[in-house]
Design goal:
Blueprint: H1 3-28, E1 30-32, E2 48-55, E3 58-72, E4 82-94, E5 101-107, E6 123-132, E7 137-145, E8 153-159, E9 167-172, E10 182-186, E11 192-198, E12 203-209, E13 216-223, E14 230-237, E15 240-246, E16 257-261, E17 269-272, E18 275-276, E19 287-293, E20 301-307, E21 317-322, E22 324-326, E23 329-333, E24 337-339, H2 340-343
Parallel strand pairs: 18-23
Antiparallel strand pairs: 1-24, 2-3, 3-4, 4-5, 6-7, 7-8, 8-9, 10-11, 11-12, 12-13, 14-15, 15-16, 16-17, 19-20, 20-21, 22-23
Bound molecules: beta-D-galactopyranose.
Length: 344
């Protein structure tokens, strides 16, 4: 072997090892939908039906902290009511949307009082948190229900800091109607809105909140009447409002749909299924929960879904995908994995 061959060989080995290192590095910055996601302590992330709040340079992900056994509730004969103990609301923080630090259970369950709404035998789902610039409080709304989903109410909790502890203020049937799957949306003018599936999940209500975000003002609209839309996720882009939602098939996946409006309270124009690629007709086995605007990047929105595992709910997974726009239309294409910095 002459000196030239040796130099080429050595250079080749160095290049190869650099490439591998780069792959490993980028692998850790990848969002791999449906995979097991671990927090920075190496534990499974337990934040289902959740939403993400961006506050002062950090993302806070709030979700259902599910108990580790799933059972079927025979007291609900009309649908497959799989349940797990409601362990409160968890919070994880991140700067980059891939490395998540567990901040703890920020809305704690009440383990001792079986009559408490926060008792694990009840239902706590789809928590969402927004920040109120006037009161300087972090305000959480969530779906609060009895073990058989008959209560159909919305609970409210507040905290002075994003990572809790949240103080539970109680629940209500907003505007005196049922409230189950829900989300919050804070508009650019600081006004906030509660979107919730009502009338036995048949009609989606959009309800304006008071300035402190703690109650409905009484101004609301009924949308997608009798269309059974659930799992609403709302965002705004270029002055238009979007709502992404699922159909109503309990934990089983179905086709997503999105609608666009010029005004937050409607009228909404239904645009169809935003998903494309493998299993797009069943939302890649997922159900919408939130759309996040990624900070510091142009036109960067990410759709978040839950991939429910109905017989082992704590082992449900997460599907996060970038949204692409074509005029007012959106496309959420399936990707095995992607990096926030690679796409946006
Ligand atoms: C889904 C809903 C979930 C949960 C589930 C119970 O339709 O989106 O949040 O309530 O039903 O089966």
């Amino acid at each position: 072997m002459n000196i030239k061959t040796i130099v080429i060989l050595v250079a080749g080995i160095i290049l190869l090892s650099c490439g591998q290192k780069k792959d490993q590095q980028s692998e850790s910055a990848m969002i791999v939908s449906g995979a097991e996601w671990l927090d920075t302590d190496g534990n499974m992330i337990n934040a289902h039906g959740g939403g993400v709040l961006y506050h002062e340079g950090t993302y806070y992900w709030y979700g259902e902290y599910k108990g580790d056994s799933t059972y079927w509730n025979p007291k609900v004969p009309s649908w497959e009511c799989y349940r797990s103990e409601a362990g409160g609301v968890s919070c994880y923080s991140s700067k980059d949307l891939t490395n998540w630090k567990f901040e703890g259970v920020v809305l704690k369950p009440n383990l001792t009082d079986s009559l408490s709404e926060l008792h694990p035998s009840n239902v706590l789902e789809r928590p969402k948190v927004i920040y109120n610039d006037q009161t300087k409080k972090f305000v959480m709304w969530l779906h609060v229900d009895s073990h058989d989903y008959a209560k159909a109410a919305a609970g409210v909790a507040v905290s002075d800091t994003p990572n809790g502890k949240f103080e539970y203020l109680g629940s209500m049937r907003p505007n005196d109607v049922m409230s189950r799957d829900m989300t919050l949306f804070k508009d650019d003018d600081g006004k906030a809105y509660h979107f919730y599936s009502s009338e036995n999940n048949k009609t989606l209500y959009i309800s304006e909140l008071t300035d402190d975000y703690l109650k409905p003002t009484g101004k609301f609209t009924r949308n997608f009447i009798d269309q059974s839309r659930e799992a609403p996720a709302v965002f705004k882009r270029n002055g238009k409002y979007y709502v992404l939602s699922s159909g109503c098939t309990a934990w089983d996946p179905n086709q997503a749909e999105y609608a666009v409006a010029d005004s937050i309270m409607g009228e909404w124009t239904v645009m169809g299924n935003p998903c494309s690629g493998k299993d797009a007709n069943i939302t890649f086995y997922g159900q919408s929960t939130h759309v996040l605007k990624i900070e510091g990047k142009d036109d960067a929105y990410m759709a978040m879904f839950d991939k429910w595992n109905k017989t082992d709910l704590i082992n449900s997974r997460y599907i996060w995908l970038p949204i692409q726009f074509n005029g007012d239309s959106i496309d959420i294409a399936w990707r095995e994995k992607w990096a926030v910095d690679g796409i946006f």
